# Entry
Amino acid sequence: MRLYKNIARQLKENIRQGIYPVGSALPPERELAKQLNVSRTSIREAVIALEIQGWVQVKLGSGIYVQMAEEEKIPHIQTATDPDIAPYLNEEEEISPFSLLHARLLIEPEAAALAAENMSEQDLSQIQDAYLLNVRDNFDGSTIHIGDRLFHIRIAEASGNDAYAAILRIFLGHGYGAMFSRLQHFFTPQDMPLRSQAEHLAILIALQKRNPNEAREAMRLHIQNVIDTFLFNQKRFQKDEENS
# Structure
């Protein structure tokens, strides 16, 4: 079992036992991390999982508050879907968002390089269509980011490596589950979709040039920027909590 799930289970047990009564605040993340001898990132992921399940409520600048203690009261989480993306969604148990992003960093740059070498004109047309959908999503203020996901999936499909394509379909299903959505809510700046759109354009241009090295580097830079943005804003959030 992944570490954040063990932490979430332990915190739920403490809530059930009345150690953290309904309405009370959990200890700060730094204190919980010290008590449990884990990283603050793992604590944050556990707290996001508990919030999704309805056990706690995170109030920015204030703290983490227990809001229910009975598992049967946990609400069902609805995940937004769309006919174009539904075939790619995987509704099984979620992967830790940071684990997911680091795994994508290992896989997607190589998939992009292979796509630059192997894709057909039809593949390129489908990637371009996904990019245009991404642009339209951002213009419309979408929070589901269908075009973004299809852009990455279609590049993997164009790589000619069926394993890369299958992995990305699974990853992108997990990637936009409830935990990832909460991570975006807390740690994503408002201009992040437009930043990603610009980085997608750089990837697309490299693919249009059929330059594998440029495509690999553009994809690597894009995913690394997403990771760095999440980590930077997570640290800023933690600092604000410490100063509050």
Summary: Residues 70-80 have pLDDT under 50 and may be disordered. The two ends are 34 Å apart (CA to CA). The chain has two domains: 3-66, 96-243. The CA atoms of residues 207 and 232 lie 30 Å apart.
